[in-house]
Amino acid sequence: MAWLPSGAAGGPALRGARASPALSSGVAAAVMLYKRALPPSSPLHSARPSAAAQRFFCQLLERGASTVYLGRWVHSATCSVSVDDRPHVELTDGSNGELLQKREMVGAFQRIPMVMPATDILMSAQRKSRNVPPTKGIQNIAKRERNKGAKQLDALMKELSVPLRTYTENFPRRRDLHPYERSLIELTFGEGYYEKVLGRVDALRKKITSVGKQHASVCAKSLTKREAEERLTEGRKELEEVFQRGQNAIEDLINVAKALRSMPVVDPHIPTLCLVGSPNVGKSSLVRILSTGKPEVCSYPFTTRGILMGHIVSNHERFQVTDTPGLLTRHDDDRNNIERLTLAVLSYMPIAVLYVHDLSEDCGTKVADQYITYKHIKERFGDRLWIDVVSKCDLLDRATPSRFDDAADDGVDDELRRYREFGPEDAIRVSVQSQIGTQELKQRVHHLLTSQRARIKADGGDNEEAVGEVR
């Protein structure tokens, strides 16, 4: 990856090259920086960058850019784009260049580091630090012993603190995450818990560093061999006690890491079908017949307590399917965290919606309540591509009081009455149990996701055009 470090008094300069007065703001500077940032073998050395690319680099110079990273759009195993693969800017004014860097891509949870158990970190640090020898050539016994003691305490401190620093630096910051992943963290752990755990780990690292440096300094001032040995023992004991007192923070971080890695990755570049509806209306059963996903299917509400993923492969095309928790009839502010997971997918991911209705009321939710929830979600997310499905249609012949009680229909508008009888307009009637309408549903879903792919490509082309100018 090419990079441009800040130069001396002449402004941004290239590695191995002197700062030139020509490297000032303007098109000439942008052209020079653009070409020299490229690998020597690049054919673009002889090509003139576009006007958009020149303007981009001029803006960096005007804002005081000290370092410019140039990269390619590279898809990871989860088809996400890592931060280091994007154009990145470091500014001399201390800002992080958020206006010039697009970082909000999903998949960060799959890149978090593995967290070692606290006991493993401690045992490894003890073993490595005890094997640190004194500096060669020291003849005086007292000097050699205090040198060895100071070095071993310093090594123990580093072996304990470096892993903790690695964790705090490589776990993603919430503000850098995609809004969908930010909402997953908040809904899974609660507001502020994620940052609190990382803060406790960092506080433990700082404490270990402080205690280690203090004891290493004291040991280095020992006058005799015995004194050096005693101070080494005292320092090692206190460092280990400090680490053990704070090891609960590491265990909590392990649990956080496990939970984050288990969260499904919804790739925004792949068309995704999101099943939505009231609890127990049959969403999970439809996921099982439409995709590779195998969610739990039971006859009680809220069987699905998280976002479950499956995949569809049709005509050599790959699509995603998400099964979401059911929505109750209530205001969004009153929803629990399980329901808010569904709203997070609808709000932040480019998905197509398959809304499931159960007019038989076998789900336990009255048709009128399903209708209210449906209208609310349809009004809020009506810009999504959409299919309505009436599930359990084989049960509709069984009359239910709320559907056919004339007294219950008094004061009910015609739209709700039609909904009770037929469901939404153009809804597909399906029964997984009797295999009614499943083939039609699969065909409609394939057509819907094909249209969603075209929409994603159209939106992606608009977003990537400007970045492609500066590659």
From TrEMBL:
Keywords, comma-separated and alphabetical: Coiled coil, GTP-binding, Nucleotide-binding
Coiled-coil region(s): 225-256
Pfam families cross-referenced by the UniProt entry: FeoB_N, NOG1, NOG1_N
Any one GO CC term of the record: nucleolus
Boundaries of every Nucleolar GTP-binding protein 1 Rossman-fold domain copy: 337-394
Record keyword GTP-binding present: yes
Biological process per Gene Ontology, one example term: ribosomal large subunit biogenesis
Keyword Nucleotide-binding: yes
Domain spans labelled NOG1 N-terminal helical: 109-267
An example Gene Ontology molecular-function term: RNA binding
Residue span(s) of domain FeoB-type G: 272-329
Name of the protein in question: OBG-type G domain-containing protein
Native organism: Triticum aestivum
Gene (name only): LOC123143284
